[in-house]
Amino acid sequence: MTGGLGTIGRGLIEELRSKGHEVYSVDLGHSEDEIGFSLRTDVIDPRYARCDIGEFRQLERVFKKWGPFDYVYNCAAEFGRWNGEDFYEQLWKSNAVGTKNLIRLQEEQKFRLIHFSSSEVYGDWPEIMAESVMDQYEIRQMNDYAMTKWVNEMQIHNSRLHYGTESVIVRIFNTYGPGEYYSPYRSVNARFVYCALRGLPWVVFRGYSRTSTYLSDSVKTLANIMERFVPGETYNIGGQQLHTIEELSDLVVAATGADRGLVEYRDSEILTTKDKRVDTSKARDHLGHQDSVSLAEGVARTVAWMKGVYRL
């Protein structure tokens, strides 16, 4: 699992281990479960390594130490369009070069790859976002983050044609919930909840709609891919309940008791998809994907979790 310390990565590791899988993970930070490469490792059975996938030497070292692997989940990425604007150097290195490094190892070692793409690849597509849209139409990605994710998909496609590698791509739609720690670059759900609990103002852009996918629902679906692996498939992993950003903000206000005066409304946000209406029928049919937690309940659970984490 690359990106094992991330929001989805942490939950997915826990889910896979609960199913009896032996899981090793890498990420950019240090961890208590970490292996030492040039010094004595203190823990008896380390399952984590610090590794920047944009550095081939670091990635190859992990595969030599712990491999061969049957499957690799590539969750590692610089996440989000504004994070990609502000930290574009890391974005292109981690997302584009990092994925290429992983593909080079896949071509040699023949593990099956499950790669995390994004709903952002659909740009401002005005109709239902079905997986086949990207094969039928030339779509303009709206920001660097979206561009890197589409580059990744093409890298994987080309490797399959040239080397016969076996991969599955998942396009993630606005996953949120307990386990997503706040930063100004995180999901709009996490930002609204954190600001409401802290008494901080937040901005709502009118006229935009999204689906929100509760984290545990996404994780369960993603864990099923190994047992139902179909090389070359692409899946949308998203929610079925379309909502406006105004409606999401109202739910946060209701769940936190925040002052409605904290909300500032604006009419538009540059380089941002207007509506994300997603077709998740393939994930439901192939992977058993389902929404088990409504948006209102998910927001309430996120509020309770953040209160505990941030001692609010």
Helix/strand/pairing category = alpha/beta
Largest sheet, spatial ordering of strands: 3-4-5-10
Sheet with the most strands, sense and barrel status: 4 strands, parallel
Number of helices: 11
Can you put this structure into words, describing what you see?
The protein is α/β, with parallel strands linked by helices. Helices cover 42% and strands 14% of the residues. It has helices spanning 7-18, 56-66, 81-86, 88-109, 133-136, 144-163, 188-198, 215-224, 245-256, 281-287, 295-309, and strands at residues 25-27, 48-50, 71-74, 112-118, 167-172, 175-176, 202-205, 209-211, 213-214, 234-237, 242-244, 263-266. The longest helix is centred in the N-terminal third of the chain and has 22 residues, at 88-109. It is globular and about 55 Å long. 42% of the residues are buried.
